[in-house]
């Protein structure tokens, strides 16, 4: 799983390089795509980046034609960031080889096995979310006062 996760990061970096944007900007694009229309503050909250850093990301993505800023009709002071639909088409093409490879892998499993794998992936995602929140909780604790983390080894199948 660690190798697959690391390779996913490397694949994303390659996509970013081919697309001519920074990897962190590509990750923000992915979050925007998943979250939908959001404010810069929400994007900062989700990514853990500062609002200043997010402004830079949005500026670069807007300059690249990948996102746009839209004023809220009800409150003109509020600005939403939205993905340009054509940008998703542009970026999606770079994921075709990965999608084809994963379809080939999935075709080797029965429906029952795929349901188990999907359950595993969903539960794993929830575990990563919980672990991320727990680790973020340490940010407000001075390093010298942080509890030691205990590493548990996994049982081998």
From TrEMBL:
SUPFAM superfamilies for the chain: Winged helix' DNA-binding domain
InterPro entries linked to this entry: HTH_MarR-typ, MarR/SlyA-like, WH-like_DNA-bd_sf, WH_DNA-bd_sf
Keyword annotations from UniProtKB, A to Z: DNA-binding
Residue span, HTH marR-type domain: 1-126
Record flagged with keyword Cell wall biogenesis/degradation: no
Pfam families, A to Z: MarR (PF01047)
Gene3D superfamilies recorded: Winged helix-like DNA-binding domain superfamily/Winged helix DNA-binding domain
Molecular function (Gene Ontology), one example: DNA-binding transcription factor activity
Protein name (Swiss-Prot/TrEMBL): DNA-binding MarR family transcriptional regulator
